[in-house]
Amino acid sequence: QVQLVESGGGLVQPGGSLRLSCAASGSIFRLNAMCWYRQAPGKKRELVATLTHDGRTGYGDSVKGRCTISGDVARNTVSLQMNSLKPEDTAVYYCNALGAGEYYWGQGTQVTVSS
Length: 115
Prior knowledge:
By secondary structure, the chain is mostly beta strands. The protein has no helices and 11 strands. The protein has strands spanning about 1-5, 10, 20-25, 35-40, 45-50, 55-60, 65-70, 75-80, 90-100, 105, 110-115. Strands 2, 4, 5, 6, 9, 10 and 11 form a 7-stranded mixed beta sheet that branches. Strand 5 and strand 6 form a beta hairpin.
């Protein structure tokens, strides 16, 4: 069994920054990628950013230029630096890991952007 634990969420004012972190543990043979998703109330879960085992990154259109994903998939850790946050970034952020044909999810961490 694989567990993902996120940390770093909270309340931030518009224009502020937050850093989310995620660590995977358990019966991990090898992860191929680690990602961040988010889900706002009443909306579908959307991909925020991806980090592959060979260091490639990708971002959703809504966060390009404002977020940076980093980490080491081989060490089962990933972080998401979010800058210039907007109220529409308010959501539960989930860490996701792709193993050998299986997806694993964290419990989520709330990010609220409000003045």
